[in-house]
Amino acid sequence: MSSESTEVWTGWYRDRSGAEAIVITATGRHVATRIRGVEYTGASFAALSAAESGGQALGGCVLEWDLPLPVVLDGVTQQATLSCLLTLGERADLSLTLHYGGAAFEACVAGGDFDGALDRVRRQLPPGADFGRRLLQAA
After folding, report:
1. Do the Cβ atoms of 14 and 21 come closer than 8 Å?
2. Dihedral angle sign, alpha carbons of residues 55, 57, 63, 68
3. What is the Cα–Cα distance from 23 to 124, expressed in whole angstroms?
4. From start to end of the chain, where are the E strands?
5. Using alpha carbons only, what angle is made at residue 6 by residues 4 and 11, rounded to the nearest 5 degrees?
């Protein structure tokens, strides 16, 4: 068994056929979710593809999930929530919104670059503030 941490987040999958609750699992450099009985895996959210069926990429949909992301300012940790919205169409568009201290810090990126969007959110935080933990590399 691997010593890597596993994180599990709940969210929603939406497409033309409707919406359903999903569970997203992230371990190291791997993300996975099951949608309508099909397992999708990938190195990032924007690169999810069917584990079977010839590896067909997930597309024409929206994934939405929240995750806890504490913020540390002056040695004090405060709870915050990172809301994530990923649109998978002809390209991947990712929107992140950090709800912290009564404010919302937002970043939107084309291509689904989670680390890039997260860095944009970090740069908006008050001077001296930073995230209280690292998110898994898989995102």
Report:
1. no
2. positive
3. 29
4. 6-15, 18-27, 30-35, 38-42, 49-50, 61-68, 71-73, 76-78, 81-88, 92-100, 103-110, 130-131
5. 155
Q: How many CB atoms lie within 10 A of CB 80?
A: 20
- The CA-to-CA distance between both ends of the chain, in Å, stands at 21
Residue matched to tokens 């890597």: 4
* Alpha-carbon torsion angle 97, 129, 68, 18, nearest 10: 10
Taking only the tens place, the pLDDT of each residue in 63-105 is 999 999 999 999 999 999 999 999 998 888 999 999 999 999 9
- According to DSSP, the β-strands at 61-68 and 81-88 are antiparallel
Please, which residues bridge with residue 100 across strands? 103
Using alpha carbons, list the distances in angstroms from residue 93 to 5, 53, 61, 75, 119: 27, 25, 11, 34, 16
105 - beta bridge partners? 98
- pTM here? 0.87
DSSP assignment letter at 37: T
